[in-house]
Design a protein that fits this description.
With 121 residues, this protein is mainly beta. Helices cover 0% and strands 50% of the residues. It is built from no helices and 11 strands. Strands 2, 4, 5, 6, 9, 10 and 11 form a 7-stranded mixed beta sheet that branches. The chain is globular. The N and C termini lie far apart (40 Å). The relative contact order is 0.31. The mean pLDDT is 96.
Length: 121
């Protein structure tokens, strides 16, 4: 059974940092690209960042470009999202997603349940 489980969300003050983790099981993690996608209240899904199987290709959505670092540890079957200089508009549920391929985004076919991030003073 394919499983993706996010953790690390919570309440953080504006300007603060947070690091999300996503541990996966049930598929060959190092054969697939991964991504972090968010959904802000009342909004649609928005790609935050994408990473290829070997970390050689990374893509960043415009909304958080320059403020996030995506990384992965294939031995630990884990993908990370480090978020810095957080703003109130970054409040969202953040989802970990598995891509259908190894490199550039080709469509996400498995999702975690999400972890909620609230940026507020």
């Amino acid at each position: 059974e394919v499983q993706l489980v996010e953790s690390g969300g919570g309440l953080v003050q504006p300007g603060g940092s947070l690091k999300l983790s996503c541990v996966v099981s049930g598929f060959a993690f190092d054969n697939y690209a991964m991504a972090w996608v968010r959904q802000r209240p009342g909004k649609g899904l928005e790609l935050v960042s994408h990473i290829s199987w070997d970390s050689g290709v990374k893509y960043f959505g415009e909304s958080m470009k320059g403020r996030v670092i995506i990384s992965r540890d294939n031995a630990k079957r884990t993908v990370y999202l480090e978020m810095n200089s957080l703003k109130s508009e970054d409040t969202a549920v953040y989802y970990c997603a598995k891509d259908q391929s190894v490199g550039l985004p080709e469509g996400y076919d498995r999702w975690g349940p999400g972890t909620k991030v609230t940026v507020s003073s």
